[in-house]
Amino acid sequence: MNRANKKTILQQPISTGGISILMVFTMLCLATFSVLSIGTAQAEMRLTQKNASSVADYYENEAESQRILSQIDGILKSGQTEGKTTEQMLQEISAIDSVTVEGKAYPRRVRVSVTNDGPVGVELELEITSLGSLKVIYSHMISKNNFTYGDQVQDLWKG
């Protein structure tokens, strides 16, 4: 090798600084985005679990309220065939857990409120006439937490 070639080889700088900086920046961006994605995925998983729990609680309470409604209907049907008075039937109905009989005049209001340890429950309001007939006035979801916006309490669902 002659001297001229040695000088040209030694004088050519290897420019890896720009590429190295670009690679470090790219890796930092990828690491940051991966951490953010993991955090978002975990938050979404927690939200989904809360939603699943809330929906399961609602349907469990809905099934329980329908069981109580069936029980009330059974008391009224058997009471009519046995010749019981409406007051006797209402006494049997008021002995059921989660049931409240309201008022003294007919039609009497019967409120069924079913909640468990979850955040939502189900409330039914029934009307019983002096003849012992049953009418469901309304059924809706109730919230134990009373989700609020400002000063107003918002119902979750009106069905």
**What would the principal axes of the Cα set say about the shape?**
rod-shaped
* Count of runs of 4 or more consecutive helical residues: 3
Q: Could you give a short account of the major beta sheet?
A: 4 strands, antiparallel
Strand coverage percent: 15-25%
Strand order of the largest sheet: 1-2-3-4
Q: Unreliable stretches, pLDDT < 50, 5 or more residues?
A: 147-159
Q: How confident overall, as mean pLDDT?
A: 78
Approximately how much helix is present in the residues?
Answer: 40-55%
The total tally of domains equals 1
Provide the structure class.
alpha+beta
- Rg over CA atoms, rounded to whole Å, is 35 Å
What does the model show?
By secondary structure, this protein is α+β, with helices and mostly antiparallel strands. The protein has one domain. The protein contains three helices and six strands, in the order αααββββββ. The chain has helices at 3-11, 17-82, 86-94; strands at residues 99-102, 108-115, 120-128, 134-143, 148-149, 152-153. Strands 1-2-3-4 form a four-stranded antiparallel beta sheet. Strands 5-6 form a two-stranded antiparallel sheet. Helix 2 runs antiparallel to helix 3 (86-94). The protein is rod-shaped and about 115 Å long.
